[in-house]
Amino acid sequence: METTVKWMDGAMFVGESGSGHSVVMDGPEDLGGRNLGPRPMEMLLLGTGGCAMYDVMSMLQKSRQDVRDCRVEMQAERADAVPAVFTKLNMHFVVSGTGLKESHVKRAVELSAEKYCSASIMLGAAGVELTHSYEVVDSEAG
Fold first, then answer.
1. Cα distances (angstroms) measured from residue 34 to each of 6, 14, 43, 63
2. Residues contacting 4, CB < 8 A, separation 6+
3. For the whole model, what pTM was predicted?
4. What is the pLDDT of residues 1-36, one digit of tens each?
5. Beta carbons within 10 angstroms of residue 114's beta carbon
6. Exposed, middle or buried: residue 83 (CB in 10 Å: 0-12, 13-18, 19+)?
7. Taking Cα atoms as reference points, which of 32, 43, 51, 66 lies closest to residue 118?
């Protein structure tokens, strides 16, 4: 896997993935940025959430669950000192659908956390205190 991150000006950078996609990252104005994109540490959280969501949705689709909506709400804490690494991360999955089996959702979240999500497992190995939770919301078929 390869990426390139290019400095634009101030605290703004453009990252280009090996698959050809670009994303702007920027800092707040008080740190020389223009606030035109997420912070690099926010990108790390977004990537972790995307990694876990991919796992969970893949497993729920394979088990033929009628998922209508799914999101992962993440709350992270960082150290007060430099480097301001993540110290805690909670990932709360909210899965909506019709006739969802809670056991399938629970198992998908557990497998992502313990076996499949490279990003969150890597953060855990680095000492981040990870917690996972979920809720199932029954929605009307429509």
1. 16, 13, 17, 45
2. 15, 16
3. 0.92
4. 999 999 999 999 999 999 999 999 999 999 999 999
5. 12
6. exposed
7. 51
Q: Which of 52, 45, 56, 36 is CA-nearest to residue 108?
A: 56
CA-based end-to-end distance of the chain: 41
Tokens for 116, please give them. 């499949």
Q: What does the block give as tokens for 62?
A: 């394979």
Beta-strand pair 86-98/66-78: antiparallel
What are 118's two structure tokens? Answer: 């490279």
